[in-house]
Amino acid sequence: MSLLLERSPRLARFVEGALEFLWPARCVGCDEPGTLLCEACAASLPVIDQRYACPHCGAPFGWLVCTNCAEPAPELERVASAFAYEGVAERLVKVYKDDHERRLAPVLAEALRFALENLAASAPEALPSLDAIAFIPATEEAYLRRGFDHMELVARELSKRLDVPVADVLIHHRSGDQRELGGEERAENVRGSFEVAGDVWGSRLLLVDDVITTGASLRESARSLVARGATVPLAASVARVW
Ligand SMILES: [Zn+2]
Ligand SMILES: [Zn+2]
Prior knowledge:
This protein is of the alpha/beta class. The protein has nine helices and six strands; from the N terminus they run H-H-H-E-H-H-E-H-H-E-H-E-E-H-E. The chain has a four-stranded parallel sheet, sandwiched between helices. Helix 2 runs antiparallel to helix 5 (about 105-120) and helix 8 (about 185-190) packs parallel to helix 9. The longest helix has 18 residues, at about 105-120. The protein is globular. The mean pLDDT is about 85. One zinc ion (ZN) binds near residues 54, 59, 62, 68 and 69.
C-alpha cells in the first residue's frame, strides 16, 4: 500500500471500497488491466480537504467563505465535493459518463461517501440526519444518448451504503449549453429547468451530482425542492471545478 494510503485511513477505505468491484477491466487513470481504478491512481486523486473548503459551496482552498459565496444561496446550506475536477478524478467521471462504463457507479458512490466522511471528520455539525437522497437527473436527451441516468445509478449505490432511501423526484428539463457561460449567465440559463414530481414536503434531502462547476444547477434544483417544502441541508459531488 502506498505511503499516502497508509497516512490517510479514509482514503484507504475509499480505495478498498472501490477495489471491491473487480472485473476484467482497465484502470481509468493508467489503463492497467484488472481493475477500474488501480491503487496508484486512487492514491493520486486530488482530494479536497474539507477543512479548507468553502463551507457553503465546497470550493477547495476557500479557507472560509469563498469569493463566489459572498451571498450564499439560502436553499442550500452546505456542499462537499470529494475531488478537484482534474487528473484521475476527471477521467473517472468522463469514462463513466462518456464511455458509458456503468460499472464505475459504485466507485462514484464511494467517492460521495468519502466526501461526506471527510466533512463529518472536519465539521461534524454539518452532517444532518437525512430522510432521502435526491439526485440531479439527466435530461431526457442525455438519457437517450447514454441509455442510463448516470446519477440515478450512483444515488442508488450510495443509498445502499448510507441506508437512506432514494427520492427520485427531480425532472430535468433541457437548458441551453452551459459550457460557454459565466456564473451569472449559468444561473439565468438554468432557471426553471427543474421540476419536482413527488411529495417531498418536510423531507431533509441530500442532493448529489457528479461535477459542480458554478453550482448553478445544484442551487436551482435545491430551490425547486425547497419550494415544495423540502430542506436541502447538504449536497455532495464527486468532483468540483475550480
Ligand atoms: Zn491506474
Ligand atoms: Zn463558496
